Amino acid sequence: MSHNIAIEIQTLxxxxxxxxxxxxxxxxxxxxxxxxxxxxxxxxxxxxxxxxSGLINADAGSVKILGHDVVTDYAAARRLIGLVPxxxxxxxxxxxxxLLRIQAGYFGLGKAQWPWIDTLLQKLGLWDKKxxxxxxxxxxxxxxxxxxxxxxxxxxxxxxxxxxxxVDIELRLGLWAFIRELHAEGMTIILTTHYLEEAEQLCEQVxxxxxxxxxxxxxxxxxxxxxxWEYVEVTLAVAAATLPDMxxxxxxxxQGNKLVLRLPRGQQRAEIASAIQEAGLLLxxxxxxxxxxxxxxxxxxxxxxxx
Length: 307
Ligand SMILES: Nc1ncnc2c1ncn2[C@@H]1O[C@H](COP(=O)(O)OP(=O)(O)O)[C@@H](O)[C@H]1O
Ligand SMILES: [Mg+2]
What we know:
Elements: E1 5-16, E2 19-30, E3 34-38, H1 45-52, E4 60-65, E5 68-69, H2 74-79, E6 81-84, H3 96-106, H4 114-123, H5 139-151, E7 157-161, H6 169-184, E8 188-193, H7 196-202, E9 205-210, E10 213-219, H8 220-225, E11 229-236, H9 245-250, E12 251-255, E13 258-264, H10 269-278, E14 283-289, H11 293-303
Parallel strand pairs: 3-8, 3-9, 6-7, 7-8
Antiparallel strand pairs: 1-2, 1-4, 4-5, 9-10, 11-13, 11-14, 12-13
This protein binds adenosine-5'-diphosphate and magnesium ion.
């Protein structure tokens, strides 16, 4: 039965004092999937990932990586997983190349792994920096080193904890291209993020974690499709003192001459444009914006529904 399951989490709980960081979480992540674990800060994402990678001991429940229990079969489980931690490290003593070779050594891998290390350096745009130390690198480059470190032993499952925090757009795109390549070759990818937009672009499946509990588990498409609203950002030539009724009713956020309107799905944008025109205001731009994770949360928690 578990042949197609990369990660099997069963009634996992972890508390820090009175704080339930994980509260009876059960979840199966299929082999070869690109899976997003979403949730606001403090939801328990890093704690869950810590347990998956054997860095944090749970109070109750179990986790198996491709059938290997992370506690009772730690060495085998650890070998199957590559973890890119949320916190950047600043190892001052070794060059990037040495760090990667040392990491290979931790897994009992020697020179045979060196060509793969070179490939990683090239694929992640780190080749020119291979003789530098971590402190000399930008935040985005440090993140890439952490990704290379996680991949040194060619794990079956790659776990990225908030990988795009502090990474500039250009680096981010290159990074995702490489991660997609690994996924296409069969690697299971698990990503935590608090950006729904990022998850939407990359992931087939999402779980939403909040206060240590799974709030929703579905395909990314279904999650967004279940959201009853559309959001449109309207830019006016000049900020208006008063808005026509239709805009005022739909107003979600306002920042100077930019308005974000919340509309029922399918409402015609043309109606908005003509309401603006009739009010004697000048529209300079109108574009659709993604529902944010907060927007989705608000709806999910208000209805109390589970997907
Ligand atoms: N080592 C720790 N000691 C005490 N509390 C912790 C510790 N690690 C996490 N927590 C708490 O557990 C909750 C979940 O944290 P975390 O898993 O880091 O959330 P996320 O990664 O989703 O932001 C938070 O309330 C956090 O403050
Ligand atoms: Mg975290």
